[in-house]
Write a structure and sequence with these properties.
18% of the residues lie in helices and 47% in strands. It has one domain: Jelly Rolls (Sandwich). A hairpin with a 2-residue loop joins strand 5 and strand 6. The protein is of the alpha+beta class. It is elongated. The relative contact order is 0.31. Strands 2, 3, 5, 6, 8 and 9 form a six-stranded antiparallel beta sheet that branches. A four-stranded antiparallel beta sheet has the order 1-10-4-7.
């Protein structure tokens, strides 16, 4: 093997091993987040037909706090590769009607200034008498959304009745992948 061929092979091996080192320098950290939401009050004249109806609740602005969480991990936003939703659940924490009988499916959409609305999570078969729901999480990379100061969540569902006023505790867990080496 000539000198040039040896140099080319050595360079390729070095580049491949640098890429592996960069891959193994990735760190994965879960960022939990909890928030209580109060259901909006419905006008006493609001009526849901017997067959139910699709309805979208008012958009809710939520401060992300992601920058502080990322800084606490000793990282900067330039090192973040991906943020994905790992788990999402809701539980009725107080209220007269303490279950989800009023709805049989829910979808949660996320948007942010300058970014389109996308489906973040859903549950399409909510059982009767359930007081908590675990949602299916999409594999969407939410990094661009969650690096903003505020995101907007829209809850849409198929309602079988009018929800009673209640407080819902929502638990999120975001998996953050960051690259330690550039």
């Amino acid at each position: 093997m000539g000198y040039r061929a040896f140099t080319a092979v050595a360079t390729l091996l070095l580049l491949a091993s640098c890429e592996k080192i960069r891959y193994f320098s990735n760190v994965n950290v879960d960022m939990p987040y909890s928030k209580e939401f109060v259901s909006p009050a419905f006008d006493s004249g609001f009526h849901v037909p017997v067959e139910g109806m699709s309805y979208s609740l008012p958009i809710l602005a939520v401060a992300t706090g992601s920058l502080a969480s990322i800084n606490k991990m000793g990282l900067d936003t330039g090192q973040v590769i991906a943020i994905k939703l790992r788990s999402f659940s809701q539980k009725v924490s107080s209220g007269h009607h303490c279950n989800f009988d009023f709805v049989d499916s829910l979808q949660v959409y996320i948007s942010a200034v300058g970014l389109p609305e996308i489906l973040m999570t859903d549950q399409n078969s909510i059982p009767n008498d359930a007081d908590s729901i675990s949602f299916h999480c999409s594999e969407q990379n939410l990094k661009d959304y969650l690096l903003k100061d505020t995101v907007y969540l829209r809850l849409q569902g198929h309602f079988n009745g009018v929800p009673e006023p209640a407080t819902f505790k929502t638990n999120f867990k975001f998996g953050t992948t960051a690259r330690l080496l550039k």
